[in-house]
Amino acid sequence: MKLIVNGEEKEFNKESLTIKELVEELGIKAPNFAVAVGMDVIPKSEYETFQLKEGDKVEVVTFVGGG
Prior knowledge:
Elements: E1 2-5, E2 8-11, E3 17-18, H1 19-26, E4 33-37, E5 40-42, E6 51-52, E7 57-62
Parallel strand pairs: 1-7
Antiparallel strand pairs: 1-2, 3-6, 4-5, 4-7
């Protein structure tokens, strides 16, 4: 499966991925992050069930605190 993740084409050895599986594959450990597919921000409650499709454009944004 090929996806565009944060502007980069990435290929995964799976035929389907949920957002939760994608985040695990990418190794994202940040406690606070948001995911958008296309122009839609996906609620965290849907990460385990939202199925990504071939060619989806995914943006993963992590939040960093500071001052």
